Structure formats: C-alpha cells, structure tokens
C-alpha cells in the first residue's frame, strides 16, 4: 500500500506543480517556487492518504481540492505577514468612508484574501464529491416526477414564481398546485434522505430506481382543470388593432 502511494506521488508531482502555478497565475499571486513545491508535496501526501478510487473520482480531481485549500492558506498567511493596503477609494466613495469613520489605509486581512481567491466556501474533497453526488441524485429524482410536478418545482424553485401565479397560468387552483408541490418535494426528500444515510457512499442505483418507480405508480386523483379567466381569454383572442386615426 505504501508503495502504491509513493508511486502516486511520483506520478502526479510534476502535474501538480504545473497545476499549482496555473492556479497562482489565475489569482495573480506570487510565491517562492520552493514554497510552492512544498505546498504541492504536502497536498499530494494528504491526498494519497485519503484517496479512495471506489468513490468514482480520479486522483488528480481529488488532489486538486487539497492543493487549492493549501494554496489559499499559504497565500492568506503571506498576506498577513506582509500587510497589503487597499487601493485608494474613488472620489465618490471617500466622503462616505470618512463619514463612517473608516480609514483610507486599512489593510486586507487573511480572511478577505481567502474570500477573494475562492469564490465558494472551501470544502474537503469528500464533501465536494458528496455534493456532486447529491446534485446528480436530485436531477435523477426530478426525472421521476410527472410533467406537472416537474413544471411546478422548476417554476417555483428555479424561476422564483409565486405559487398563485403558477396555478393561474396552468389552469389549476392554488390548493391543488400546493398539493402537487408537496408530493414532489416528498419524493425528492425521500431520495435524498436515503442517499444521506449511506455514510458518504453512492446510493445504489436499484434503490433510487425503486423509489422513482413507486412514485410513478401512485394513483393520481383526477382534477378538473380550470378554464383561464374571461379577461385573459379575451385578451388572447383579441387581434391587435392596426387602425390609424385620420
């Protein structure tokens, strides 16, 4: 096992060094080359200890998150050691800053550097893989919904529409659309809850398929669809006037 880990470190060391330099260029940050190589070696050692090929990710992907996290901490430490003054405020902002009692020569702290360099909260590789797993499972769960349920979920949670507006445009009562949304969320909840109970491993394909198939086989109560309101129907049927006043 130790021999395999050593081989991984040797095999990916050069690739990891190139990746580290690429990340630093993207961040417009400079570090001593020896320090960069040291961070790379540390990241490789951390990655080989925790890498599990059965989780479905390649080693380079797994190592990337260790490398990125260590680089963020290294750059933040360097920023603390060498205070970096903020750029001078624009003329329009200077008065407000002075009114709030904020000095012009405030320095950037480590947290601000790390926040600026990383667009999202840093997660361990295991957490990142689990997040990707849950995202994929959510997409698969949505495929198990019928057309109406999927439309309601997408319009309410992705497009941000109000439930009343969704119900009116689809020709159903608000209560019915609310029940449709509740059932759809229950389906998604049970799938995600099942996945979370597997202790980080991928949910078995058969389990997810069984839940989806069970949901599809549930009987649906027939609901009479409402007609669009008269004003909306008239507006849709009324041709646009092309008359021009003489």
Layout of helices and strands:
Blueprint: H1 2-27, H2 33-50, H3 59-81, E1 84-85, H4 91-99, E2 107-108, H5 110-117, H6 125-143, H7 147-158, H8 163-170, H9 174-196, H10 205-217, H11 230-237
Antiparallel strand pairs: 1-2
Helix pairs in contact: 1-2, 1-3, 2-3, 3-5, 6-9, 7-9, 8-9, 9-10
Structure description:
This protein is mainly α. It has two domains: 2-122, no CATH class; 126-227, no CATH class. It is 68% helix and 2% strand. It has eleven helices and two strands. It has a two-stranded antiparallel ribbon with strand order 1-2. Helix 1 crosses helix 2 (33-50), helix 1 crosses helix 3 and helix 8 crosses helix 9. The longest helix is centred in the N-terminal third of the chain and has 26 residues, at 2-27. The N and C termini lie far apart (92 Å). The relative contact order is 0.07. Mean pLDDT is 69; it is low at 83-122, 198-208 and 239-246.
Short description:
The protein has eleven helices and two strands; from the N terminus they run H-H-H-E-H-E-H-H-H-H-H-H-H.
List keywords for this structure.
246 residues, mainly alpha, elongated
Question: Secondary-structure element sequence?
Answer: HHHEHEHHHHHHH
Lateral arrangement of strands in the main beta sheet = 1-2
- Number of separate domains: 2
Helix content, binned percent: 55-70%
Q: How much strand content do the residues show?
A: under 5%
Structural class: mainly alpha
The total beta strand count reads: 2
Shape: elongated
Largest sheet: 2 strands, antiparallel
Arithmetic mean of pLDDT: 69
- Poorly predicted regions: 83-122, 198-208, 239-246
